[in-house]
């Protein structure tokens, strides 16, 4: 295990933290939406600094790494772990990539939270001056439907 893994929260603890974090609230509230957001951050135009997307994503101040609490650092480590997993899978073993869709109470999959997270990253990236292609791919189709 790496130092990031040692510091990171479990997925359950991270989702619980996202659900109750007061203002500024995270841009996403579930692990499925977080997975969609991070997938867009990995595959889309690069942010100059990871803090440019990690801080707004989790509702943390820009200086959270330098001046944040142990919980802030654990949240950053958790997001970094998810980022590294998605990045490694997409670039080393793309055939193994599977979005982390939510499960409906009836047992089926619910792609909406993942798509909402992906879309939140696109919006944040556009606010930061990066352009996305206007083409719709299978990955972005759920986000680009009207």
Quick one: biggest sheet?
2 strands, antiparallel
Helical fraction: 55-70%
Low-confidence stretches: 132-141
Helical stretch tally: 8
How do the strands line up in the largest sheet?
Answer: 1-2
Number of strands: 2
Mean pLDDT: 87
Strand-and-helix sequence, N→C?
HHHHHHEEHH
Radius of gyration: 15 Å
Distance between the termini: 43 Å
Using the alpha-carbon principal axes, give the shape: globular
- Measured by DSSP, the beta-strand proportion falls in under 5%
The computed structural class is mainly alpha
Secondary structure layout plus pairing:
Elements: H1 3-7, H2 11-20, H3 31-43, H4 51-58, H5 64-67, H6 70-92, E1 102-103, E2 109-110, H7 112-127, H8 141-144
Antiparallel strand pairs: 1-2
Helix pairs in contact: 3-6, 3-7
Keywords:
mainly alpha, 146 residues, 57% helix, two-stranded antiparallel ribbon
């Amino acid at each position: 295990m790496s130092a990031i893994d040692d510091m990171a929260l479990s997925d359950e603890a991270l989702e619980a933290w996202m659900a109750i974090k007061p203002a500024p609230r995270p841009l996403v509230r579930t692990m499925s939406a977080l997975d969609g957001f991070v997938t867009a951050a990995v595959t889309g135009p690069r942010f100059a600094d990871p803090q440019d997307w990690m801080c707004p994503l989790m509702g943390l101040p820009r200086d959270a790494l330098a001046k944040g609490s142990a919980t802030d650092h654990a949240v950053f480590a958790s997001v970094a772990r998810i980022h590294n997993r998605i990045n490694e899978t997409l670039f080393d073993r793309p055939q193994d990539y599977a979005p982390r869709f939510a499960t409906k109470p009836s047992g089926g999959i619910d792609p909406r939270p993942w798509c909402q997270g992906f879309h939140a990253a696109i919006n944040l990236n556009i606010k930061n001056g990066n352009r996305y292609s206007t083409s719709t791919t299978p990955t972005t189709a759920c986000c680009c439907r009207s």
